């Protein structure tokens, strides 16, 4: 696995490094209210591949945002939940969701208008 950056230019750089990417915010949003098993993530976010889900969860775990609990049973059971540090992201995610809901139509319209412009 490639080495992840450990030096940052500002606080926003740290934050985007932790939650950035296509899937991490969706994973964290789902974990805001409950503990989730690996296969449940596959149902909740059907577009994500198993490999990408594993990678994103591993990175969140390495950053101390998500806790992974493995139960010694057959078949194996693995659950994920937010850590105390991860829970500090909840207000940020809530604000991002609010902004998204409030501006979704404007953003969609802007993107349609750009798509109509000749190249």
UniProtKB/TrEMBL annotation:
InterPro entries (UniProt xref): HTH_HxlR (IPR002577), WH-like_DNA-bd_sf (IPR036388), WH_DNA-bd_sf (IPR036390)
Keyword annotations: DNA-binding, Transcription, Transcription regulation
Domain HTH hxlR-type per the UniProt entry, residue ranges: 10-108
Entry keyword annotation includes Protein biosynthesis: no
Pfam families noted in UniProt: HxlR
Keyword Membrane applies: no
Domain of life: Bacteria
GO molecular function terms attached to this record: DNA binding
Name recorded for this polypeptide: Transcriptional regulator
Species for this entry: Listeria riparia FSL S10-1204
């Amino acid at each position: 696995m490639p080495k992840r950056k450990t030096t940052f230019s500002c606080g926003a750089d740290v934050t985007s490094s932790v939650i950035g990417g296509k899937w991490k915010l969706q994973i964290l949003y789902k974990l805001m209210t409950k503990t989730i098993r690996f296969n449940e993530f596959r149902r909740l976010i059907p577009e994500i591949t198993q490999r990408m889900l594993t990678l994103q969860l591993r990175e969140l775990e390495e950053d101390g945002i998500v806790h992974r609990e493995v139960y010694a049973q057959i078949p194996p059971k693995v659950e994920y939940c937010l850590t105390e540090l991860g829970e500090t992201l909840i207000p940020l995610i809530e604000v991002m969701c609010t902004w998204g809901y409030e501006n979704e139509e404007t953003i969609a319209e802007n993107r349609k208008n750009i798509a109509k412009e000749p190249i």
